[in-house]
Amino acid sequence: DTEVTQTPKHLVMGMTNKKSLKCEQHMGHRAMYWYKQKAKKPPELMFVYSYEKLSINESVPSRFSPECPNSSLLNLHLHALQPEDSALYLCASSPQLAASGANVLTFGAGSRLTVL
Amino acid sequence: EDQVTQSPEALRLQEGESSSLNCSYTVSGLRGLFWYRQDPGKGPEFLFTLYSAGEEKEKERLKATLTKKESFLHITAPKPEDSATYLCAVLGLTGGGNKLTFGTGTQLKVEL
């Protein structure tokens, strides 16, 4: 299995809702990532987990709350979002959290989030 | 701070018309330069990693090359299915060497 699976594919939520995005991989990767991508922009790193522990938080607002229940799963909990948070949210995984060109990120297809 | 600039922003080719995409970069301690392909509404798909100047890699109609300041993605005799956004990213020592810096991409359209 060489895939990163993200659910849901599409999500529409109001500013007062609480929802979650889910990501799963079965490649035995120990690093998992959340990226945010706006239209015609490059992916922006949000969070990185290594061995189920939060390793990097790119100063993301607290209305985004990541969770890594185990080595295969990564969640992103959403609460009190703003319309400007509407974007494609990408999950990725890599073998390790390492400064190496061999540490290639595999991306999921993304969750398209619309905040009304 | 690592920086990646891609050009052109958009490129329209006729089927079979070869061309090149450019990725200029500045990075502290290059650990790898990556090319990804992204289809609309999908996640980036890995194509190549280049590590050092002079290196070249090929996959079907695509060939990636690397110098000390830029990388090129050459597309030979493209087909409509090559239409996508091509993203370049670098991994350096910034942020402990764990943070990819992406360019804004080149949106390629190949027409019949």
Alpha-beta classification of chain A: mainly beta
Which regions of chain B contain 5 or more consecutive residues with pLDDT less than 50?
none
Most residues in contact: chain pair = A-B, 28 and 29 residues
Secondary-structure element sequence of chain B? EEEEEEEEEEE
- Name the average pLDDT of chain A: 93
Given as residue ranges, the uncertain stretches of chain A (5+ residues, pLDDT < 50) are none
Distance between the termini of chain A: 36 Å
Q: Rough shape of chain B?
A: globular
Number of helices of chain B: 0
The residue-averaged pLDDT of chain B reads 94
By DSSP, the count of extended strands of chain A is: 11
Please give the share of residues in helix of chain B.
under 10%
- Based on secondary structure, the structural category of chain B is mainly beta
Would you count the extended β strands of chain B for me? 11
Report the principal-axis shape of chain A.
globular
If you had to describe this structure to a student in words, what would you say it looks like?
- The complex is a heterodimer of chains A (116) and B (112).
- Chain A has strands spanning 4-7, 10-13, 18-25, 31-37, 44-50, 53-57, 64-70, 73-79, 87-94, 106-107, 111-115.
- With 116 residues, chain A is an all-beta fold.
- Chain B is mainly beta and 112 residues long.
- Chain B is built from no helices and eleven strands.
- In chain B, strands 2, 4, 5, 9, 10 and 11 form a six-stranded mixed β-sheet that branches.
- The mean pLDDT of chain B is 94.
- The interface between A and B is medium-sized, with 28 and 29 residues.
Task: Describe the secondary structure blueprint for this structure.
The complex is a heterodimer of chains A (116) and B (112).
Chain A: E1 4-7, E2 10-13, E3 18-25, E4 31-37, E5 44-50, E6 53-57, E7 64-70, E8 73-79, E9 87-94, E10 106-107, E11 111-115
Parallel strand pairs in A: 2-11
Antiparallel strand pairs in A: 1-3, 3-8, 4-5, 4-9, 5-6, 7-8, 9-10, 9-11
Chain B: E1 3-7, E2 10-14, E3 19-26, E4 32-38, E5 45-50, E6 56-59, E7 62-66, E8 70-75, E9 84-91, E10 100-102, E11 106-111
Parallel strand pairs in B: 2-11
Antiparallel strand pairs in B: 1-3, 3-8, 4-5, 4-9, 6-7, 7-8, 9-10, 9-11
